[in-house]
Amino acid sequence: MEKYIIKFLAVNSRGVIARLSALIARKGFNIESFCAGHHIKDGESSIVITFSGSEGDVQQAVAQMSKLINIISAEYYHEKDVVQRELLLVKLKNVSGVKEKAQALGGRLMKEYSGFVDFEFVDKPNSIEKNVAELKKNFTVIDISRSGNNAI
């Protein structure tokens, strides 16, 4: 199974994401990542969905999703054909060596307070996965928040 990125341009209105998610669930596709935000024009949103499957699965998904109301355009890409980034925010217990290790992994210290530190990481999704595993292995991870894969 290969990873694919589907990028939608949609009218920013109530229910668009729900309709996309319902269609994906009905077709049995497993979403690995979902990222949405405002686009260039007011009233438009960019939606990036990452999932594994065959190219036929992706073509079928794009064809079905393109028919949904409020979808302006839909395109798919193989993961190797796009630039991908994900944002990770992580709260760690502040112990000896935690700041140095997180910074060595590419993290940027955002806040330090009362026994905790917050770091930001921006990297390729597979690097984010490795960073989370490394931090969990060596330190007490209190909380994480991930943006989902974004691509262009």
Commentary on this structure:
This protein has helices at 16-27, 55-66, 98-104, 125-138; strands at residues 2-11, 31-38, 44-53, 71-78, 84-93, 108-113, 116-123, 141-146, 150-151. It has two domains: 2-81, Alpha-Beta Plaits (2-Layer Sandwich); 84-151, 2-Layer Sandwich (Alpha-Beta Plaits), CATH 3.30.70. 22% of the residues are buried. With 152 residues, it is of the alpha+beta class. The model has no long low-confidence stretch (mean pLDDT 93). Strand 6 (108-113) and strand 7 (116-123) form a beta hairpin. Strands 5, 6, 7, 8 and 9 form a five-stranded antiparallel beta sheet that branches. Strands 2-3-1-4 form a four-stranded antiparallel beta sheet, covered by helices on one side. The radius of gyration is 18 Å and the shape is elongated. It contains four helices and nine strands; from the N terminus they run βαββαββαββαββ.
Q: Helix proportion of residues, in percent?
A: 25-40%
Overall pLDDT level:
93
Q: Please write the string of helix (H) and strand (E) elements.
A: EHEEHEEHEEHEE
Taken from the alpha-carbon principal axes, the silhouette is elongated
CATH class category label of the largest domain: Alpha Beta
**Biggest sheet statistics:** 5 strands, antiparallel
Rounded Rg: 18 Å
Structural class: alpha+beta
Strand content: 35-45%
- Count of individual helical segments: 4
Spatial separation of the terminal alpha carbons: 22 Å
Low-pLDDT segments: none
CATH superfamily of the largest domain: ACT domain
DSSP E strands, number: 9
Supply the number of structural domains: 2
Question: Which CATH architecture of the largest domain is right?
Answer: 2-Layer Sandwich
Reported by name, the CATH topology of the largest domain is Alpha-Beta Plaits
